């Protein structure tokens, strides 16, 4: 059911409504009429699934893909036919692994061997797992995992080897963390541990996908020689999710923000979620966002190494969503109260832009980096570092797609003394505008209070505001009817005549 608030939101933001129509309605038109619509106006999938040619178990796998992730499901199902099923199975395999790791009801002695041996289950006919708690979101995927096994055996041996290898590495990494008593008690300790955790749960995904892309011929082989690029791709997504999901994870008794960061701002992690520590929590989240921004420019570099449009779309859309989510979370107190997400309209805008080319993806990154820079405040201990990190991203974008605007050139030189001076001046201007606004608000409030007191005092002393209002109302009605005439003796000519009558000449 459509909410009134949603209607009002899209009345104020019609561009987002247009993007929703572009993405969903145009897809329906394209599918039903087989029209080839201009890509600049409508989104049209590069490739479409041929469901009538798929096996029963394959269709079941894609049904689970829809249930486990709506966002990834859409981009996976538009992949080139060569990569469609392998990437789908890779995702479902890791989702199954993650479902076991996430379930806190499974004892460590049961969970650890399951994770370490999960890669071997991919070739075990009929294998399934029914030990998850009933409320676990993706429990049914593991209950019917035999369909994933069936389809896994059909794909090329090279793809099977890649998926098994990545599952083996990730399962063992997860098991190591489960057996880490300190991690189970207080969560992630140092930033170094945080980076390692993100490597196991996301960086390895980036490695696996890159190997699949290169094996299929749709990724530049040089990407395998630059592992820091696909590592950044995975870490950027994972770090964004960890930042956004702080409340949800804490409610589930899981802490992923490293103690090395949050202990600078509060004594106990749970203090971040208390209203009385809101300023400290915002400063802490700023430092987390700063950590994530350090991976952003390498994500854009990675995208330049992809050779096929559907593969580019598959990688670009999640990264663009991540930078938008990061901008939404930055200095947003609501993230400590509930799980926040970008609107559907924003998501569709991003997807439309991210299915075009690298230039438009860079524009998405630049727009949201500037939003972060705009929300940055001098009172934040990370203020200068965040400004420099934003400038570094803009500098990278500027090096690929140069612009002619002076302000872009200034922002793109974060280490230059002139840039620091410009940032200082911008900060002073921002503070001056803020002070002026606060002064005007204070004066306006004082005027309202004084006026209220004066009218209240007049009313207590017997002033008849009802008669005054009635007189004003009658005067307005006479003016509207064209019957108004100035009262006798009120015109300037009559006053001047009286003055002549009484003055001696």
UniProtKB/TrEMBL annotation:
The pathway it acts in is: Terpene metabolism; lanosterol biosynthesis; lanosterol from farnesyl diphosphate: step 1/3
InterPro entries for the chain: Isoprenoid_synthase_dom_sf, Squ/phyt_synthse, Squal_synth-like, Squalene/phytoene_synthase_CS, Trans_IPPS_euk-type, Trans_IPPS_HH
Q: Tell me where on the tree of life, at the top rank, the source sits.
A: Eukaryota
Q: Which residues cross the membrane?
A: 20-37, 437-461
Instruction: Quote the cellular component terms of the Gene Ontology held in the record.
Output: endoplasmic reticulum membrane
Q: Where in the cell is it found?
A: Membrane
Q: Where is this region: Disordered?
A: 483-505
> What Enzyme Commission number(s) apply to this enzyme?
2.5.1.21
GO-annotated biological processes:
ergosterol biosynthetic process; farnesyl diphosphate metabolic process; isoprenoid biosynthetic process via mevalonate
Q: What cofactor does this one take?
A: Mg(2+)
Quick one: where is this thing mainly located?
Answer: membrane
* Reactions accelerated catalytically: 2 (2E,6E)-farnesyl diphosphate + NADPH + H(+) = squalene + 2 diphosphate + NADP(+); 2 (2E,6E)-farnesyl diphosphate + NADH + H(+) = squalene + 2 diphosphate + NAD(+)
The record's annotation in Gene3D superfamilies points to: Farnesyl Diphosphate Synthase (1.10.600.10)
Keyword vocabulary terms for this entry: Lipid biosynthesis, Lipid metabolism, Membrane, Steroid biosynthesis, Steroid metabolism, Sterol biosynthesis, Sterol metabolism, Transferase, Transmembrane, Transmembrane helix
Q: What biological function has been recorded for the protein in this entry?
A: Catalyzes the condensation of 2 farnesyl pyrophosphate (FPP) moieties to form squalene.
* PANTHER family named among the record's database cross-references: FARNESYL-DIPHOSPHATE FARNESYLTRANSFERASE, SQUALENE SYNTHASE
Q: What is this protein's name?
A: Squalene synthase
Organism of derivation: Endocarpon pusillum (strain Z07020 / HMAS-L-300199)
Source species taxonomy: Eukaryota, Fungi, Dikarya, Ascomycota, Pezizomycotina
